[in-house]
Amino acid sequence: MSNKGTTVDDGEIAKLSEIIDWWDPTGGKKILHGLNKFSFSLAQKENASKPLANLKILDVGCGPGLLSEEYASKYPNKYDIVIASEVVEHVANVELFLNSCVDTLKPGGKIFITTANRTRLSFISHFIVIFLFEEVLRIFKKGLHDIKKFVTPDVTAMLNKNEEEINKHKMLKDVVWDPHGRCVTLHSLNHRRVPYIINGLISKPEIRKSPHPLADKKILEVGCGGGILSEGLAKVGAVVTGIDPCQELVDLAKEHSNIYPKVAENKPTYLCTTIEVHAQKYRDYYDAVIASEVIMHVANKDLFLKQCIETLKPGGKIFITAPNKTITSKIEIFMLENVFKGAAKGIHDYEKFMTPHEISRILEKNNCTVNNTHGLVFYPYVEIWQWVFFQSLWFALEATKND
């Protein structure tokens, strides 16, 4: 059984904790001791210009210290290298595990992974690791490995896809705060999404009309980018935390909040992190979570939404805006990127779009009730968004986390 919201698998920990011969180089852990030579040579080859003595290294799943003790490092918050050696096959959530590892790396840092391959002919992996190593040679403890948890080298795609999206958005840093440039849709959308969020969180009309209707409301914006929406919410009193995996955009958001007088007394807090990592520290914390124009840029929608919901208080609300997955929205995106220049070219991938129904199903599976869904359309010639009765282009969705 795994701990909720983590990569820890209690069953795997129980199996590994029974092993007592970790430091016998001729016993059952002979393979792990021998693997150190390979790990060292690979790390040294890939970092030839930097002696390992000066690198900060994190060994994830170190056991009793076979690898981390030999590197003899004390770990700060950011690392040059992360090592996950013979660990991936023992975690509950591989994607969360890998992206959390990457989150600890410095820009330009490297991750090294060794693991048993789940070959296309799975019986080969099963025979070598399970039967030969466990049953015959007794190199591994019997029952230590589960063939169903083995992965292929394709597991790195979980990292590459996210990195690709980060690089796409990194290119926007010079145009984010141009209200009539490639991010015009985001600036204009504030005139619709900020009131939408206010109306969803505040029931009393007199408070809605006040200068700071969201005063003291703790709001998390996931995928805050350069801070366009975060600042819009801070202006109306919300206590905003904006998170984004792109360091350049987070730095830009911080810089802009320092020079923008309308949020001088209530600046958003910006963090370069992922929702998977943030959710571990801020469970049941926020009054609202906003994922505006973000869902189509993440690789694992179920995991993303689940972690967003984890950060919500019971009774808290999640707000989502996104393009629908329809032929008309595909045409709209093409025109917006290539003709009207209202969005960065290539920033959207239609294959990653979702329908309101698909999102609603995930939310309901994670103990939420969908309150409403509304259609949106952008008029590029006048740079205005309007609410419409149809949802075939864009939509906004509000849901409540049940008690």
From TrEMBL:
Q: What GO annotations for molecular function exist for this entry? A: 3-demethylubiquinol 3-O-methyltransferase activity; polyprenyldihydroxybenzoate methyltransferase activity
Q: Which GO terms describe its biological process?
A: methylation
Give the record's keywords alphabetically: Methyltransferase, S-adenosyl-L-methionine, Transferase, Ubiquinone biosynthesis
What is the protein named?
Answer: 3-demethylubiquinol 3-O-methyltransferase
Biological source species:
Leptosia nina
Pfam families linked: Methyltransf_23
Q: Which SUPFAM superfamilies match?
A: S-adenosyl-L-methionine-dependent methyltransferases (SSF53335)
Any single GO CC term annotated in Swiss-Prot or TrEMBL for this entry? mitochondrion
Top-rank taxon of the source lineage equals Eukaryota
